[in-house]
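Q: What does the assembly look like in three dimensions?
Context provided by user:
Components: two
Sequences:
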Amino acid sequence: MSAALDAVQALKARWPGASDRATLDHPAVNVPASDLVAALRSLKEDHGFDVLQDVSGVDWGAGSSPRFTVVYHVFSTVGHDYVRVAADCTDAVAPEVPSATGLWPGADWHEREAFDMFGIRFTGHPDLRRILMWDGYPHFPLRKDFPLSGVPTELPDAEVVAETRTGAIAAPMAGGPFVASPGEINMTEAEPRAKDESWTERRPKPEA
Amino acid sequence: MVSANTDLTYNSKIEGDVIVSRADAVINWIRSSSMWPMPMGLACCAIELMAVAASRFDIARFGAEVMRFSPKQSDVMIVSGTVTYKMSSAVRRIYDQMAEPKWVIAMGACASTGGMYRSYAVLQGVDRILPVDVYVSGCPPRPEALLDALVKLQEKVKREPSASKLLSA
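A: Here is the predicted structure of the complete assembly.
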């Protein structure tokens, strides 16, 4: 049995709330959010999973329960193996999990990104600000109820807004995706462009 | 004894060679022959911009080799790359800090229209916040295309009524 499977078995034995998680590659385990940091600490200190590779969020869609899940990938430089740890957020409106920054300082920006994109709050994070979108942006773009084209939003700089009278606009794909045309053709025609240019944000999509 | 100069016409033996021209032509010739770019490099187009400045394409042939990273020393902002909404305020502010006269080249699909980034995060064309003089197509454009844009901009500058603008300012 591999070190990763051993570690998962040990986690399940120690925390009764932990359970096997469906996986196609590395051993994976679901952990209750309340036991998350203790389980990650055990993986790091008792089982040699010393590298935090990634922290990411999942939105299962409005109405799902649980709605948000946080997924951690940890790697062992001793056993050369991965373990995936997932924790469901109990609250769908204000999702929260404890921060792993106390174990791995590198979790800092991963958690800021998950907060920025999904609105998952990491309690105990030293500096939980947005990392990609600007401060004050009112939406969480990777949530399932956020449209791909975006929603009209004010820009952060009031002075620039007053001068340019513009803001973030919804930008529908307009027949996209925008792809380059393959083959030996004229450079101008090979430029990336929408395959259907009959509708834009100014002209609505014609009824089929 | 020094006598008063009573010559009514131009005496080349005293004053040297002189060329007669229009003020517009002189001012525009000066402006268009040394356009110092403000390289607003935001994405991969900036790599092509660097190629334009390097020896093979050599933007110095057109008098625009002096890339100035200070907006107050530059004449033409070359917006080369994807302008995100988060960056757009900074781009506008840098443009505001450039001294008149100033021009803008939108280099590439992203700067011109948002390009393939039809997204919640990307400004759909830098002309939403800046007055653009020349658009360059391409993703990214060939260096020759940017040189062509610069030549087009120089032609545009040469048509401007600079003298009357200066007098009315």
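Follow-up: Chain B touches chain A through 22 residues (CB under 8 Å).
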